[in-house]
Amino acid sequence: METPEHFDVCIIGSGPGGFAAAMRGFDFGKKVCLVEANHIGGAGIMHGAMTSKTLWELAKDYANASSIDRGYRAAGLMVDYQAVRDTVIQAAKEKQYQILSQIETFSAPRWQGNGSITLKRGFARFHDARSVDVSLQSGREERLTADNFVIATGSKPRGFAGVTVDNEKIINSDGILTFREFPKRLLILGAGIIGCEYASIFSNFAQTKVHLLDRQPRIIPFEDEDISAFVNANLEAKGVVVHHNAILRGITKRAEFLEVVVDYEGGRSQVLEVDAALVSVGRIPSLDGLGLDRVGITVNKLGGLDTDNDCRVTGTSADNIYAVGDVTQISALYNVAEMQGRFAIKAMYGRTKYPLRYHNMSTIMFFNPEVAVVGLNEQQCQAQKIPYRVASYSNQLVNRAIAMRRTDGFVKILVSEDGNNRILGMRAAGPQASSTIMVIAHLMDQDKGLEEIMKSIHPHPSITEGIQECLRLMTGKSVYKPLAFPDAMRIRVWSPENGYSDVVSLPG
Question: Cα 291 to the chain's mean position, in Å?
Fold first, then answer.
């Protein structure tokens, strides 16, 4: 091989964590190499958040356009999956070319300032703790050396025992864009966030009969029952058939369809006929072929990499290898990967000012309507034996929601029942939930208590006025009162000793 080119830092994977790390390295004036074997931007662009959320936005718009309860009716409304697919791919490529444009702008030797970004299109595997071999897409092999490395190779869809994904009739999330048309009948295996999101998407387009299969008694089981019930009710209202406490026995390919056998608790079984099946049972770290054994790194029992508080990989004598994003299995979220990528570079060069914080990371679930969460839920508080006060306020009473004709949904806020009134968490379900959640998330990051938060006056009419009223409800100062609207607002206290107790009235 030729004399290896040397870099300050080499990043394997150009997803949200890898790209953010590369740009933070550039900010510090470092010579950065970014290696990508597949899609620029990682799976999150072509097979993840960008494509699925573009598909969700289009489906939501179609559902709104086809609605007949708003005083108007669209005539001749039609949808073509190929046209939808083209729009989704266009959105993904738009983001990919933004990433590429920035990389090229600061590439060597074009960029004459401090630092540089060099993109290698190929597959990297460790040669030793200071070098990697890259199999370039051109077919050439190249070795490069670096002072530090960041593993940011992301994740891939988890398989389902006994089910072979062919990305024709049986697909995973990577195969959504291989459909040539809307399947008339679709089985979704797994009722977690991704499964429920795709159930929302296909039901919104109203071209597909969706069966959602899960072995749990309720969907989204890691969230509180009110969130699960809300999502379940909206899916069923769109025609989705939710199969609870159900186990897939097998899928048999027939000439024109798939024959599915489902077993339920109690001994009952059912045979379904569908046109396609989507396997959505989670994701696993993508670490195959990286040569981790050459640098003394072993994956943990969950298939990921253990890291310390600086994102440095542990369990190896090499102290210059970091890992960020899905491979760490801390949280499979775009924003977490991006935050870790930036932090790893700062830790690498002694530029950190405060440690990573994961407990206030907000999450959006793209259902119909959307759900957003931040902080602890009731299940988690009870498991940790944290006494709390919880108030919920329905969108039925929020003027903006009434004007939008979207009164389904609510805000739920938890505060500590210890005299300090610290905000512990929030759940928002309904229109604009992804935006309203940041009102509380930002203040939680500042450790603001209930009294401080209540000083803010929200614009009118806005969805966030529901948050304002929910907070007022905590102290008995809400404009509308629970006695007049018992189905739209509620406040309760929970303690490990006494469980739940309703708060009937509070001094104003």
Answer: 29
326 in the same domain as 232: no
| 79 within domain boundaries | no
How confident is the model over 216-268, as pLDDT tens digits? Answer: 999 999 999 999 999 999 999 999 999 999 999 999 999 999 999 999 998 99
- Contact by Cβ (8 Å): 279, 170: yes
Distance CA 410, CA 226 (A): 10
**Residues with Cβ < 8 Å from 358, sequence gap 6 or more?**
330, 331, 336
Measured CA to CA, the distance from residue 429 to residue 450 in angstroms comes to 21
In a domain, 362, yes or no: no
Is 152 in the same domain as 289?
yes
In the β-sheet with 209-213, what is the strand arrangement from edge to edge?
170-172, 276-279, 185-189, 209-213, 241-243
pTM: 0.93
Handedness of CA 88, 91, 93, 99 (dihedral sign): negative
Quick: pLDDT tens for 122-142: 999 999 999 999 999 999 999
Provide the residue range defining the domain that includes 275: 170-281
Q: What angle do CA 106, 111, 114 make, to 5 degrees?
A: 90
> Which residue, 281, 307, 332, sits at the end of a domain?
281
Q: In angstroms, rounded to a whole number, what is the distance separating the alpha carbons of residues 304 and 307?
A: 10
Is residue 209 within 8 A of residue 344, CB to CB? The reply is no
Both 274 and 289 in one domain: the answer is: no
Q: Burial, 140: exposed, middle or buried (Cβ in 10 Å; 0-12, 13-18, 19+)?
A: exposed
Whether the CB-CB separation of 179 and 81 falls below 8 Å is answered with yes
Residues 289 and 277 in one domain: no
